[in-house]
Protein 1
Amino acid sequence: MKRFMLCGLIALPFLSFGQIGIKAGVNFANVTKSSSINNSSRSGFNAGIFLAPPSKKILSSRTELVFSRQGYNYKTNTNTGNVNLDYIMLPQYMAINITKFVQIQLGAQMAFLINAKADSNKTTGSSGSSPYGKMMDYYNRFDYGYGGGVEIHPVSGLLIGARINISLGDLYKDYTDPSSSTPPSFIPKVDVKNNVFQIYAGWTFGNKSEKKSKKKEE
């Protein structure tokens, strides 16, 4: 959370150059299929801020800073449970304004893993600690990928959207080294990647200078 606040403070000087907004919604997250863990989707949430330079043209842009809780449910021969993965995401999207009410978004994103937690019948030992050590040790901290979605603006300021994010980076570290610790059963031996479908709502706070110019034109 401290990292999220710090990034928000860094972004403040740039807010005068466009419209700032807030957004929050629900994640339906999963990883690419792996038969060894029989994974399924898991719900989470997303929340963040964005900067959208005002534009009357067909093409515009969107820069975001988002906290996203992802993960997956799993079932193996010996273990069942779920994995929660918390990311700070930095999406950069191109927006195509179909009308003033509908916008299509396409682009790329970076993501930084800040927390990983597993809840299962075998992630707690007799002493109350995890028998697998620190969960973050099994995951790559950096991820990247692409995404796209649709956003509608029914009234001034309000936005409602849906988006899919597809990762290109491997979720787990390479544990082929014999000296490495043995990963838990819910970490498959094959590379898997994050997939997230998001539904969200938000509010855009208009650029004051733009509003003044509109009043002068009127």
Note: The helical segments are 2-11, 208-217.
Protein 2
Amino acid sequence: TKSGFVKSRHLDDKAGVAVLYSALLKLKEQKINPEYDTYYFISNNEEVGHGARAGYPEDTAEFLAVDMGAVGKGQTSKEDNVAICIKDSSGPYSYELTMRLKDIAIKNNINYAMDIFPHYGSDASAAISAGLNAKHALIGPGIDASHAMERTHIKGIEESARLLYHYIAGD
């Protein structure tokens, strides 16, 4: 919309791909080569607990899922920020990685919210339940009305991309 809102079905997947692509473009533009091997996986089965269960490199040390932050009553996520998930229905995310993401957001003036999603699962939690032994975390733009006509804001997508960029760049 003219006010910056984006409305569509399946925005968790669509906005997530936009976040991934935006961060990649900036890394290329800035000529930054990540210190660590970085892999992008795109799935559409996280809602049923499959997603990243299908595979990940054996030497994965950190797994950062880019999905969505649930907006609504009792949530701190908003459409115009990046949500950093502390815990979802599978349990807590890696404290060390989650706090590092928070520190990156603070250091780079990124609009963020720490949140808990009790009725939610991500590719990161699916990978952990499949046996991945790695630090895991979850970020994404705030999205209202999950699994309906969803709504987010371009600023939430941008803030999520900025956080992902700075994370990969090692800031």
Note: The first helix runs from residue 11 to 29.
Protein 3
Amino acid sequence: MKYVPTIGLEIHAELKTKTKMFCNSKNDPDVNMPNVNICPVCMAHPGTLPVINKEAVKSVLKVGVAVEGKLADFTEFDRKNYFYPDIPKGYQISQYKYPLVSGGSLEGIDITRIHLEEDTAKSTHFSNYSLIDFNRAGVPLMELVTEPVIENGVQASLFAKELQLLLRTLKVGEANMEKGEMRVEANISIKPEGNGNLGTKVEVKNLNSFRAVERAISYEINRQEKLLDEGGKVAQETRGWDEGKQETFSQRIKEGSADYRYFPDPDLPKLYINKMKELEEKSLKSQLPELPWEKRGKYVDEYDIKKEDADMFVRDSYLSKLFDAVVGEFKGDKKLIKTASNYITSDIAGLIKTDADSSEKLHKNITAESFAQLMSMIHKNEISSRGAKDILKEMYDRGGSPSEIAKKKNLLQKSDEGELKNIVEKIIAENKKVADEYKNGKETSLQFLIGQGMRMTGGSANPEVLKKLFIELLK
């Protein structure tokens, strides 16, 4: 039987504020010492009261404006009640009924809501005991929930990547998945094709890489399909992802929202956002930088570069800064801009990938002016593409002018026809058989003759000029 998957995502992302969500403790969960960024408020000492972090609220509203969601006029915080050692109060402060943002879309996926809550402490489990680090407890945590309109793991992974990029662009969060700064949960169900009723939902929690998102969803869809084909039933449960085995595993029976006994937090007042000028949509919109999809579209439409190259620039701030600076040097010359794009995304990106000091070298050694000069030398046939790669490597490692490096390394191409004509005539005389083969229609013979010319000049001859001279002399 053919099945149709239905997938929705819940994505938690830590926000990059100076202090925690409801207290003045430093927001730095990655500090080397455990339990140092804590205070009586985030440790739930009796008599302490929470205070809302306005910057965290503003960060979520900025995301809402960027995805064109509806900002709340007012909101309130709720207590999500459950007992677990990583939450000292016995409840988590979250938002249930009134999220900060409703609706919106990203990467073609509709968003249900975006709300704000506090993160829990970090637990480390051993065979017979557990340790808890409360540095993370109370860190501002944005939760974004999508509509169940995602069809496969690839689409889900692309959405998560775009969200990470948006958070970094807005400078509201780093969203490093390997550090747990962004965590993805997927709600997955399948139904027979043509059936209007949704299947039983399974939640796969704490997917901590884009690859895990894609593979876990694909695995879970296949698992559910096989189960139904064999006459079994899909249980509503929470499952985890085993990276080593590349499979999901059962963790617990899925809890409904009623189990948490949500109710408004009596210690926190309602927040009337529409009465705060700095949180108005117009004000927030004016503060937004160029958004990833706007930048991507500009690169493709205005500069006519490949979509893959544009995507790399949008995702890598070092490369995009160099590209933007070089574009300014070329004053709209699309041919030079496309050449620059190709060299940055292939050669420079390759150098960076294998070098731990890449960012420092790139900024220090390759300026927009020197890189633009190198591109111009390629277009004027002053150097070969192979020579350009050697020059670029030298520039990256030690800096310097591309023209000076080309002279020093004897990489300047000879394009003087008068000088090269004598060499071409000599090659024809020494390779009469090959020359006759070309005259009789064997095109590969021409490549051999050009190769001889490159060998005789130590690779310094312009191959296009050699080709032109051979064709003229062998007519």
Note: The chain has 16 helices and 17 strands.
